[in-house]
Amino acid sequence: MKKKACMLVTVFMVVLALSVSVQAGPLTIAGGDWLYMPTVESVRIAGGNTFLELSEVGAWSGTFEGESTEAGTVVQHSSGRVFFKGIVSFVGTVNGQSGTMKMSVVGSKADPTAEWEGKWVILGGTEGLATLQGQGTWWGPGWSPLTPTEWGVIHYAGNVHFEP
Fold first, then answer.
1. Which of 16, 81, 138, 159 has a CA between 20 and 30 Å from the CA of residue 49?
2. In angstroms, rounded to a whole number, what is the distance separating the alpha carbons of residues 66 and 17?
């Protein structure tokens, strides 16, 4: 019986040692502002829903310092609820490291007059941002067609880290 218990303890220790993962760099709290100006590329209506294909330019401050372009889709449902999904192409610096990165952003708002809220995830990068990982939330009033020459304002927060 003692032999069996020693064997189980040994197997447990080996499995535990093998399951220890490589640690990522330290987490950094990310936050700042994202200003953007959209251009409507196309509009279509189907089943009472309006689909807008957009391109955008953006300016980032805070943890993400730089500029971006974006391609995305806004869907306004007949219920009034609005959804957005897009891919941001960022050029700039994050925590002193320079490069490019791609980020997925998705969000929604209850109706066209409500504020946006959503999530962002870093998909990958190049140069100094090649090992950057992160995710978080975004929120704010965004851009309004009532003031088309004013930049939309979004705030972002989350965590980022560099893989070793």
1. 138
2. 42
**Hey, CA dihedral for 126, 132, 133, 138, is it positive or negative?**
negative
In 3D, which of 157, 137, 122, 138 has the Cα closest to residue 24?
122
Domains and CATH numbers, the chain: 28-162 (2.40.350.10)
Percent of the chain, pLDDT > 70? 85
Q: 73, 52 in Cβ contact below 8 A? A: yes
